[in-house]
Write a structure and sequence with these properties.
CATH architecture of one domain: 3-Layer(aba) Sandwich
Largest sheet: 7 strands, parallel
Shape: globular
Radius of gyration: 41 Å
Oligomer: single chain
Number of helices: 23
Strand order of the largest sheet: 7-6-5-8-9-12-13
Structural class: alpha/beta
Strand content: 5-15%
Number of strands: 19
């Protein structure tokens, strides 16, 4: 019977080969071998066998029906319980070739008759060789499995150790952050204590209410009574994102008058006088915005001490930067307040809340905080309901919030009119600028009054060249500005005529030019934070107009190579200099070996924040090497100093055109290479060029004298603008008058309804 089955199998195999038109390389039966007990030999079957041949074999009882298929989604034969498998496909080969076996399918240990297979004796050498090879492979597989398990164990151990190390590092970081936060809170508490002692938040008239007023206050439901309060605790708004809740943990009431009286501006005091116009100021998270807006708030409060109450709405760390300015205003008897809200959680360390203190690679987090501020601002304004809101440019949503509570919103612009008009008009042809690319010739700024202004694409703000935060928000910003009550700009008319006239015509319902808000200079030393006042004493040791002051703002930064070239250039100029270096660049690694010792007798480096207004006003300073940020341009003009321009980012290259081509009180430091708003794409300005430009500028000559005379003329006009009946003085008072009139109109409208 066994012989008959074998013959049938061989016949099927030959038939399969013949049917394919192929010649097999060997004939006769495949070799039989003795196998380990419990194993079944699979017959050699050529890979060219057809499905019908397999079915014939099944019908003959040589294989089980369907055994040539793998069940389910299996890709290799696996023994079922009680089975052992060793199957292979036939491969054409010469008799002396060694070809490894290939699995084909699974076969039951039991034969079709249900009888256990009988073991056969070893009769052929190749069968013995295959059995030995199989046993060897099995041993190797076992060893590989052991090695794999050991590797897995070692990997898990290494991972556990790495996780433990990381957890320890994170725990230590948490401790460090907690300590830093505690120190910041203690510092803030001391500042609050000091400010509270000088800045009482309860009007003395509130303590003397008439019985009628007491009755009116008690009869007004708490849910409808307006909040006229001063938050004195930086933790008054808690939570994160849109879930922040405004709490009243520490408040001192301004008024408990009825809604109608509060809306009408009537004080709750017994004298029946009008209460001040309450104006809230919301600055962006950058010193260049925060400082001038604080100056504006203080000037409005000082212009009408009994009529205006200005409240700076800021985050805790930014509050410390303006605390000195606010305290001086309070000491002078002006109603200036601070209202703090927590900086949104964007992954920055505690106390890092503005562009001037954040690392360059984390600057995007500050802009993310702007987006997260929207629900906070809405809750805050709905809770406190001021009479007017002055909000920075990025906070475009305040226009809608102000409309919701029925009060005017004004946009504050810390950038000059010339640059604003240029960017507005360039945005209208943005698609053409992008299509032509950075390598295109200079772009003529369309629609500008006066002389033609041309700027290479590489020197335009990035939002005009590619998608950026500002390009995505531009339409919202412009729509909110035009829909709002008006625009306040830190400039003065004589600096930017005829651009101010054009701006009033096309870009705002009302435009108020109130600058320079930094004048007068009575609080210049500590404006914007605790600066290095030692530099003022150092300046006093130098001759009049002999020192060049170099400062490039609190945000933009140079490469290490460029800082080294600047250091060597200032040295090569052989002129006295005062150079302000950002805190982030103050490690000294940029300084060439022995440089500080070589320049010690004529140069001073200030690391961090310097009292710029006081420096520019010092008689020893003769010129200003600047990045052309708008505050620096305006402050230089106000101080009567000619400037050397070295723009770096954003609108600074546009401001440079105003300084060098329109107002003509400055000159470019360098024209010898490629300039770019992307600092990494700009050429490095060599030390030789820096030294030559500084020396030539400071040594005078006809061109320098003309620039200096023009600077002095602008300084006189700036002082005249902020003096009584000057253009900026008039606009400042016009703001107050217009807001007061709008508030009265709102009250009457509410009364009629």
């Amino acid at each position: 019977m066994a012989k008959d089955k074998t013959a049938a199998l061989e016949h099927a195999k030959k038939g399969a080969t013949k049917g394919k038109g192929k010649k097999t390389s060997r004939s006769g039966s495949s070799s039989r071998s003795g196998l380990p007990r419990g194993w079944v030999q699979g017959d050699w079957i050529q890979s060219t066998i057809e499905l019908d041949d397999l079915r014939d074999l099944a019908k003959s009882g040589l294989i089980e029906h369907g055994s040539w298929r793998l069940p389910g989604d299996k890709t290799e034969p696996q023994p079922e319980e009680g089975e052992c498998v060793l199957l292979a496909t036939h491969v054409d080969r010469d008799d002396d070739e060694d070809v490894p076996l290939r699995p084909m399918g699974r076969r039951s240990r039991k034969t079709p008759t249900g009888k256990a297979p009988q073991s056969t004796s070893v009769t052929e050498p190749k069968s013995c060789e295959l059995g030995a090879r199989f046993a060897d492979l099995e041993q190797k597989q076992i060893q590989l499995n052991l090695d794999l398990e050991l590797a897995k164990t070692n990997l898990k151990k290494a991972k556990d150790e790495a996780v433990e190390t990381m957890n320890q590092a994170l725990a230590q970081k948490d401790l460090d952050l907690a300590a830093a936060q505690k120190a910041a809170e203690e510092k803030t508490a001391l500042a609050d204590q000091k400010l509270a002692s000088r800045c009482p938040v309860v009007h003395t008239t509130h303590a003397r209410r008439t019985p009628a007023k007491e009755k009116l206050a008690r009869s007004t439901p708490a849910t409808t009574r307006p909040c006229r309060e001063m938050i004195t605790n930086s933790g008054d708004i808690h939570g994160s994102g849109s879930d922040r809740e405004i709490l009243s943990t520490q408040r001192s009431s301004y008024s408990t008058s009825s809604p109608m009286e509060a809306a009408a501006g009537v004080s709750a005091g017994s004298d029946g006088g009008r209460r001040p116009l309450r104006v809230f100021f919301l600055p962006f998270f950058a010193r260049g915005h925060l400082i001038p807006m604080t100056d504006l708030a203080c000037r409005m409060a000082a212009a009408r001490p009994a009529e205006v109450e200005a409240t700076m709405v800021v985050t805790p760390a930014n509050a410390t930067l303006i605390a000195t300015t606010v305290t001086r205003a309070v000491d002078a008897g002006h109603a200036v307040r601070l209202l703090r809200y927590p900086f949104p959680d964007v992954g920055l360390e505690s106390g890092v809340e503005c562009l001037g203190t954040v690392a360059q690679h984390d600057a995007w987090r500050v802009f993310r905080a702007v987006d997260l501020s929207q629900p906070i601002h809405e809750k805050l304004l709905l809770e406190h309901r001021p009479d007017a809101v002055v909000a920075d440019v990025p906070f475009w949503w305040v226009t809608d919030i102000a409309a919701k509570i029925g009060v005017p919103r004004l946009t504050f612009h810390p950038v000059g009119i010339f640059a604003q008009l240029a960017m507005n008009n360039l945005y209208a042809i943005r698609s053409d600028i992008i299509r032509d690319g950075v390598a295109a010739p200079s772009v003529i700024v369309p629609g500008m009054p006066g002389k033609e202004i041309a700027i290479p694409p590489s020197e335009l703000p990035e939002f005009l060249l590619q998608d950026a935060v500002l390009s995505m928000e531009w339409d919202n910003i412009k729509a909110a500005q035009l829909a709002g009550f008006g625009v306040i700009v830190n400039t003065f008319a004589d600096l930017e005529k005829p651009y101010c006239d054009e701006y009033r015509r096309v870009d705002a319902r009302r435009a108020y030019f109130v600058g320079p808000v930094s004048l007068p200079l009575d609080s210049a030393v500590h404006r914007g934070g605790d600066g290095n006042v030692d530099c003022l004493e150092w300046l006093s040791t130098k001759p009049s107009r002999s020192v060049v002051y170099a400062c490039f703002g609190s945000w933009a930064c140079f490469s290490t190579r460029q800082i080294r070239e600047l250091a060597l250039g200032l040295e090569a100029s052989n002129k006295p200099f005062l150079w302000v270096v950002r805190s982030e660049d103050s490690d000294g690694l940029w300084a060439p070996e022995g440089w500080e010792q070589r320049v010690a007798d004529r140069g001073m480096v200030v690391r961090g924040w310097a009292p710029q207004l006081a420096v520019l006003a010092h008689p020893s300073v003769g010129a200003f090497l600047t990045h052309c940020g708008w505050n620096s341009v305006l402050e230089a003009a106000s101080a009567g100093l000619p400037v050397l321009t070295w723009p770096l980012v954003f609108e600074q290259f546009i401001n440079e055109r105003l300084v060098t081509e329109v107002a003509t009180f400055g000159a470019r430091l360098w024209d010898g290479g490629k300039r770019n708003v992307r600092v990494e794409d700009a050429d490095t300005v060599p030390a030789e060029a820096i030294g030559r430009a500084v020396a030539g500028f400071m040594e005078g000559g006809e061109r320098w004298e003309k620039m200096r005379a023009r600077a002095w003329e602008l300084a006189e006009r700036a002082r005249a603008a902020v003096s009584e009946n000057g253009s900026s003085w008039r606009d400042l008072h016009r703001v107050i008058d217009d807001l007061t009139e709008a508030n009265a109109s709102r009250v009457h409208s509410n009364g009629d309804s």
